[in-house]
Amino acid sequence: MxxxxxxxxxxxxxxxxxxxxxxxVSKLFAAPGNDGIAQIAQCAPDIKATDIDKLVNFARDNxxxxxxxxxxxxxxxxxxxxxxxxxxxxxxxTGSAARLESSKGFAKDVMRRxxxxxxxxxxxxxxxPASEYLKNCDYPVVxxxxxxxxxxxxxxxxxxxxxxxxxxxxxxxxxFGEAGRRVLIExxxxxxxxxxxxxxxxxxxxxLCLAQDHKRALDGDKGENTGGMGTYSPxxxxxxxxxxxxxxxxxxxxxxxxxxxxxxxxxxxxxxVMLTKLGPKVIEYNARFGDPETQTIMARMQGDLxxxxxxxxxxxxxxxxxxxxxxxxxxxxLASGGYxxxxxxxxxxxxxxxxxxxxxxIYHAGTKxxxxxxxxxxxxxxxxxxxxxDLVDARKKAYAAIEKIRFDKMFYRKDIGWRALK
Length: 422
What we know:
By secondary structure, this protein is α+β, with helices and mostly antiparallel strands. It is built from 13 helices and 26 strands. Strands 12, 15, 20, 22, 25 and 26 form a 6-stranded antiparallel β-sheet that branches. The protein is globular, with a radius of gyration of 21 Å.
C-alpha cells in the first residue's frame, strides 16, 4: 500500500516512522514533509499542507491508497471532503466535523446542547462588549481566539488590565489573524490538564494511552502558551475510575452528539481535559493527533498503525485493537530562542550524528539540511523522545540525549513530567 502523510512537523515525522514499520506499507510519501522525514519517506516539499487541489492531484497521480492528514488547517478547509469526492481514501474528519477544533464557539454549542462538561463562557465578536464584560467579571478568566491559532491563542488573565491586553492583541492587533476575529472569555478551571486521544470511525471508539502536555514555555509552567514543550505517558496520577468517567461523559457523548447533529466524526478525537474537583471537563477539542503528544503515544503504541487507520476509514474499527508498551515515554521539545514569538532561523545544529541508543528517537520539527549539515528552521526545532522502565528512567535518557545536541539560542524545559513525580 502507498501512504501519504500530510504535514511537515514532529507529529508527522512520528506518524511516518510508525507507518514505515508496517509490513503493508510499500511506499511512504509526505507533503510537504521536512528534511528529517525525507530520510524515511519521499517528500513533496513544494506542496503546502493547505494546497488541497495539489494534494488531491498528487494522491491521484501517485496511486496513493491512504492519505493521513496531520495538521488542523487542511482539515478545517475540508480536505477530507475534497478527497472523498475524488474517491480517494483519507483518514480524518470532514470539514463540518472538524469545526469541533476550528471554532471554539461551535464546540461550546455542541457541549451545551449535549450535556458535555466544560467551563462557562461568553463569546464576543467586537472588542468593546468584551472589554465591558471584563470590567465586572470574576478573575482569573481564560481568553481564547475562536479559530485555529497553532495552540497559542489562549491567555490566562488575572485582572482587567491583562484581560483587555489579551482582547486587544487578538481582536485589534490581530496577532492570530482571522482566528481572533471572535474571542471566548471562559471561566478559569482549576486542576490538572491532560491530553486524551481516541481514534473513531463514528461508531467505535478506540482509546489511546493518556499523555500530558506542557504548554507553557518555561519551567514551572511559567511563560507564554506554546504549541507544546514536551509530553509524557502514562499518567500514574489518573485513576481508572477517572479514565472511565472521561470515556463515558466526554468521549462517548461527543461522538454520539456529532452523530445526532448529522455531522459524524471519523478520525482522531483529541480532547484537552481538566481534572477539576467537580470532575473532568473539556478545555478544548482537537480534530487530529496532538503535537508533541503523538511522538510520545507512538513510542508506546504496539501494533500496526496502518491497520488501525485503514479500519477507521473502512468503518470497522471494532475489528482491530492496540496494546501499549508498559514502559514510560517522555518527549522534550528543543526550541529556538524567542519562541513562541519572534525567533531567528539558520543556526547550525550540532550533535545529531551521535548514537543515542535504541530507546531514544529524534524527531525533526523545524530543521533544514544543507550540504549534509543541519540548521534550525522553525520555533520548535527537534523533539527528543525516550522510553524507560519508568518515568524517571525515561526522563534520564531523554535529557542525557539532549546533552549531546546544541544550537545557538536553544532552550527547552527541564521539568517534563514533574506533575507525576511531585
